[in-house]
Amino acid sequence: MGRTNSIIIPWYRGIVKQKGETALLGFTNNSVFYGDLYDQSIGNWQINSDWNLSKKYDTIICTRCAYFAKDPEDFIVRCYNSLNPNGSLYVDWGLGDHWRFEKYKIGWVKDGEHEYAYNQDNYLWSALWDESFVEDDQYKIFQSRVGQFGYDDLRTAIYEEVPSVLSLSFVEKYFTSNIHILACWEDFPQIYFLVEGIKK
Length: 200
Prior knowledge:
By secondary structure, this protein is α/β, with parallel strands linked by helices. The protein has one domain: Rossmann fold. The protein is 23% helix and 29% strand. The two termini are 32 Å apart.
């Protein structure tokens, strides 16, 4: 993930507008955003547990973490329940972040290999998808770049290689959303889908 920091952190900062009290899910420090820290490494939050935050917040930020969620719909509902009325949610899912692995994948599972990060049992499980993404210029850039790895049908690859695909329509039951998309790298292409949501 560090390879992309110089690109993605300014992108986040240009989109995220913190208001009021903020919960940072999957963060161990306040170097990018400010707020209350929640992370498994500090022992107060685990994305695949029956988690509840210590209080309700005005803003929740969860970047480069939600793809660890085995049940992304449950994750969205828990974020909704943890926000004050009109609270803001910023959460993203990525695809193609595989420069650490020998075989490039669009998703997380292919040919018997399941992607992980930090620890070998810390697997990646989910992604966000909506048919409208295919019209986005950043998506088209990503699509053109992954052809070098034999991918010509991204939608099929996502559903084949990602165990839990979250539909944007599910997110929009709970949040009025705006989606930001960023494609990175030609050699090992990555794409990020950042949800900017307001609690309904």
